[in-house]
Amino acid sequence: MAGIYIHIPFCKKACHYCNFHFSTTFNLKNELIDSLVSEIELRKSYFASEKIETIYFGGGTPSILELADLEKIVNAIYKNFQVAEKIELTLEANPDDLQKEKIIAFAKMGVNRLSIGIQSFFDEDLLFMNRTHNGSEAVNCIHNALESGIDNLSVDLIFGYPLLSDEKWSHNVNTVLEMNIPHLSCYAMTIEPHTAFSSFIQNKKMAPMDADQSAKQYEYLMNRLNENGYEHYEISNYAKPGKRAQHNSSYWKGISYLGIGPSAHSYNGSCRQWNIANNANYIQGIQNKNPLIELEVLTAEQIINESIMIGLRTIEGYNYETVLNQFTEAQKVAFENTKHQYLSQKLIRESNQIITLTQQGKLLADHIAADFFLV
Ligand code: SF4
Prior knowledge:
By secondary structure, this protein is of the alpha/beta class. The protein folds into 2 domains: 2-252, tm_1862 like domain (pyruvate-formate lyase- activating enzyme), CATH 3.80.30; 300-372, Arc Repressor Mutant, subunit A, CATH 1.10.10.920. Helix content is 41%, strand content 21%. The protein has helices at 29-42, 67-80, 100-108, 123-129, 135-147, 166-178, 196-202, 211-227, 246-253, 279-287, 300-313, 329-344, 359-362, 365-372, and strands at residues 2-8, 52-59, 83-93, 113-119, 153-159, 183-188, 231-234, 237-239, 257-260, 265-267, 271-275, 293-297, 318-319, 348-351, 354-357. It has a 9-stranded mixed β-sheet, with helices on both faces. Helix 1 packs across helix 10 and helix 6 (166-178) runs parallel beside helix 8 (211-227). It is globular and about 55 Å long. The structure holds iron/sulfur cluster (SF4). Iron/sulfur cluster (SF4) binds at residues 11, 14-15, 18, 20, 22, 59-61, 94, 117.
């Protein structure tokens, strides 16, 4: 099993919190689409014999693609890779792009899952974030998708920002519950460097995020979704039974994936690669048949640390049984000490050498994982 990620590096506007790679000018769009197709051809030997079972268009904003562009890219994948008969084909989409006719055309081209960047149903919050859509588009696009026959939907929501009162957060969560959306990705607002929010905070034009508010809203979310039959299968992801994201789950299971497009990452179990995050240079590299890719071969220790981080973030937890024999004596003692500390604080639980985070532990996931890392 393997997956392909395609990065579409264009957005209509820059959201104030976003530090992904994207451009708001579209003048290189046609060359970039051609380069994506060429990169697919150039890297057709990336997988030995695995079949592609998931394709994921992320960004940026893949829903701005014209149908002919999408078709070119999908055809190139089918031409150059072995693709399983039944695949998950996800397209990240913004609400203002999701008119019924467009969704129907996406579906005809094989898209069978939409991941929609709703973030909030309130106009003032969407303006504050500099999103392109408004609250009514957020609601309408979900109806449009359901009426157009794509019911495998995921919705993104953000919590923990100054404008979001607990009442508004409960409205956002309950709106997606009422619409019976099968999959949710919910993130605490974080302030990334080189974003508009980071400079607003530096210049005292905006209050910093409040960690207590964020923790309270995260707990509310976990409780509401649990009551409504969602599995909290990854720290930021919730699914109705059978509706987990197959592509994203591959990342968390260490399954190989190939990333196509500027800034896209690839992983094959021992080596990470990432494409240059610059549209013009990316295009030039591909046109010269010399894709600008950096790579890092992971050490045994890095592989273990990565599996600790990923394992603790998932419902399956971190199974340390199989790696204990790779630990030095000092590392075993440090690991045991960390484990006992967090067990006594009830931030983790353990069963059959599998460690999982408790609900309280999930609030401190990255910190706990870092404490387990081998040094
Ligand atoms: S639409 Fe998505 S990728 Fe584009 S700026 Fe906004 S959050 Fe970032």
